[in-house]
Amino acid sequence: MVRAAVFLLAVALCRAGTLDSELGVGKSINIFMRYGYLSICMRVVPRNDTESWVFREPTVSVFRDVEKFTVAPKPRHAKTLFDGDFHMEFCDNLKQLLQAYFRDFSFERLERPWRAFTAGWPTDIMARNLGINSSFINGDHCYVLVRVSRFRETAKLSDLPPNVPVEDVVFDAIKDTTIGDTVSIADFIRKYGSHYIASYITGNSLYQVFVFSRTAYSMIKERLKSKGVADITAKELEGYFSPWQAKHIGQIKVASGNKTVESWAMKRLRVHYYIFSYPSLLKLHGEPALLRNLDTLLGNEALLQLELKTLAPAFKDAQKRKWFEEVIDNYLKLWESNM
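The chain above was modelled as a monomer; its predicted structure follows.
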């Protein structure tokens, strides 16, 4: 039933006739078309394809003059070693791990935006995307997600005012909607989308998942919470995220799937201990030379952050806008519970 609905929504949107796949602020998309499978059209995890793309979800131009509301990005400081983010997140369970991975993806009126990407992932695909063995997907495990992201392109809109102009065809389509008629709103969503892109950041990232028993996880979490990562020696940190503490050390993954970066990480980000070694992103901690090298390797190849807001500003009539938001809310709750 859900698959049939996805197919019908895709067909309907393709008939709108004003589609492209440009990642641009102000452009609208229909998140119901591929809810649960958004990683098919947005490069957020490695994929087994050779094509170079970041975003290929159909988009529609709904608003006019969006450039007037574009926020100018902050210029990069010349002395900045690495323009991005390096952090770790402690996750008590798998749900928190997925939530942490998609922390920077925000979809207005959707309570669990990570589900829009992961609801369709079977166990083996989820394990592959997270870089861990499938045996650690189910069961009583705790996780730590370590990630370093390099930002390349940033775009952001200020909040759209109620009087923001819309395209003529959109204005006519809204005029044809009827308060109390769910079908008329559903038809509008199929043709012109549910949300518009309010902001995004593209670039690339490396990430790694460490799996712990609950006892070891609690000890490490409390230790880092009380002392802070900055005040812990590299040797002590290395010990916490070693095979002696972790039940499983995941692979170092590249969000874009870039094999060159993956190969570099396999060689340069390894901890050697007598006769064996293991990969660790934490080797970047306190290593400016490695960060500088990585800065040149991580290109503009993946979607790192995305903020979507509903098309409510397109509805000028307050009562119609309220009805649109009510239908959107109901649809989102339905899809979240059914997937």
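The radius of gyration is 22 Å.
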